[in-house]
Amino acid sequence: MDISPHATDDSPVHRLNPLTKLTFAVTVTVSAFALTMTWWPLLLFCATVLPLVIISGTLRKFVPMLLALWVPVALTVYLIQGFFYPDTHRVVAEIGPLELKYEGLVFATQTALRLLALMGGFFLLLLTTQPGALMSAMTQRGMSPKTVYVVSAALQIAPALTTRAQGILHAQQARGLPVTGLRGRVRALVPMAGPLILGALTEVGDRAVAMETRGFGTTRRPTYLTEVPDTATQRVARTVMGLCALAAVVTNVLGVLR
User: Fold this and answer.
1) CB under 8 A, 24+ apart: contacts of 192-198
2) Residue 120: is its pLDDT beyond 60?
3) Least crowded by CB within 10 Å, which of 20, 133, 233, 240?
4) 3-state SS of the chain?
5) Are 5 and 14 in contact (CB under 8 A)?
6) Mean of all residue pLDDT scores within the chain
7) pLDDT in tens, 148-198
């Protein structure tokens, strides 16, 4: 699954400053978790994230990527919270010694929808932003190189692991290992885990060498090969989004809208 933006992609969302999209993802996440109404995260997702995904033209990539990660996580949340949520009174069903609890299902629904909003906001950022542009935009705003690296590495870890896993899978297929069907894919997991982990560790070493040769951590102010465009409108939009996130937190603290 290719989840990196192409150089030819050019939509209004792609042209936004990476910091604007990062602020949007953080604001959506904070708002989804701060307010306690059960269906609020779904409304937030449909009203803000989904329209931007459609405008950016990344819907065909966004939906499979979101479902591949969100569905297993949501099912796990439902199983754990549905059967083991503490201090409950209403039992929906009994499966052997286990009781499916109403309060647990409500909490699981809210948690799963919050994760949907979180993943949606950051997947939109990943699909419409070149990692280098994000790092340049953050550095040009005077952020610490260490902070920039941590944010960038966290956003790139999923695409990097996906690309490496696909490469290992193709190599196994070329050597005659059947990986079609559910049983074949499950059998391929074990031989894929070793190269995947070792490759990730090797990449960490390579990155450390590359960062050292490029002067990472120097105290001198760096110069920039390319300037990431920004506008006054986007700066105002980022401020407004920050205020919205702050208002959501204050609303939660004051106990409003519960």
Assistant:
1) 192/165, 192/168, 195/168, 196/161, 196/164, 196/165, 196/168
2) yes
3) 233
4) CCCCCCCCCCCHHHHCCHHHHHHHHHHHHHHHHHCCCCCHHHHHHHHHHHHHHHHHCCHHHHHHHHHHHHHHHHHHHHHHHHHHCCCCCCEEEEECCEEEEHHHHHHHHHHHHHHHHHHHHHHHHHHHCCHHHHHHHHHHCCCCHHHHHHHHHHHHHHHHHHHHHHHHHHHHHHCCCCCCHHHHHHHHHHHHHHHHHHHHHHHHHHHHHHHHHCCCCCCCCCCCCCCCCCCHHHHHHHHHHHHHHHHHHHHHHHCCCC
5) yes
6) 83
7) 777 777 777 777 777 777 787 788 778 777 766 767 777 777 777 777 788
- CB neighbours of 11 closer than 8 A, spacing ≥ 6? 55, 56, 57, 128
For residue 182, the one-letter residue type is: L
Rounded Cα gap, residues 48 and 13, in angstroms:
13
The encoded tokens of residue 123 equal: 């997947």
Full-model pTM: 0.78
